[in-house]
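Methods — Computational structure assignment.
A single polypeptide chain was analysed. Its primary sequence is given first, followed by the predicted tertiary structure written as structure tokens.
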Amino acid sequence: MFIRLSERVWICIPTRHATNMVYVEGLRGYDRVAAGPSAYRGQTFIVCNSIWVVMSFRMRLPAADFFADIVKAISAVVDEGTFTVDENSIKLTSMDPAHISLVSFELEKSAAEEYSCTRQTDISVSIAELLKFLRRAGRESLTLEYDDEKRRLGLVFSDPSGGKVRSFTLNALETVAGKTPVPNLSFEARCRLSVAAFSEAVSDAALVSDYTRITISPDNIILSSRGELGTHETRLSKGGPAVYEIEADKDVSATFSLTYLDKIVSSSKSLSEEMQLALSTSKPIKLSFPIPSGRLEFLIAPRVE
């Protein structure tokens, strides 16, 4: 297979049937030049024996644990998912089987030390199995490579200072036709607050109920719960150390499952110290966690009362 680099220079990806190879001395990094078919005479063909597989996607991240934390957050919603990669980013949008929560993630190529994608590709994997490998990450770089022909995702953990490289492969799953759309929602209130404070409020609410009512008012963020044996309320005030910003003209509230809130917040809090909430009365809530060169957002459907 030949890939044109310029008007007179081509790179040849060897195959088992490659012929007409002539050894040329003095070519550093390469060891052969192809005197190809007559249509190519007068042009140069550079052939590297080590290139046997063309990866449709390759990305190297400086911190493996960063991507591990992202996949951990995604796993709060789905066990299987499809990453879509193109020349600009890697992204995933998926909904849990009960259609109560949705995750939408995107990481731009600027987050990577190296990034290449020959064409838009869908990579469907078991998120749970991928997370098993990523949980082995230490202070290493991570290279993700996808072999479209073999439908196999490669993970390479590299620690140059320790002289260690570890590699794994994960077989891809069959990609299900159709994309998960992100609902086009408008919100009546928004706020930025401490992840730790919100996580604590969620844990407190779970002591008395399976659900909590979240209210965003012009001056407060309130989580309140009521169960058979008691009640709970956490009030986080605007201007306090846990609340960074509130945008609300009136009280806006809805009730949500604490199971979903706890799983999402617990899995995502290692990524950021702050989070954003967007809410409308009796409509889905959006939870956003800022990440460098990307976004990580969740939607949770409200409880119908």
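Note: The chain has three domains: 2-47, 57-171, 189-300.
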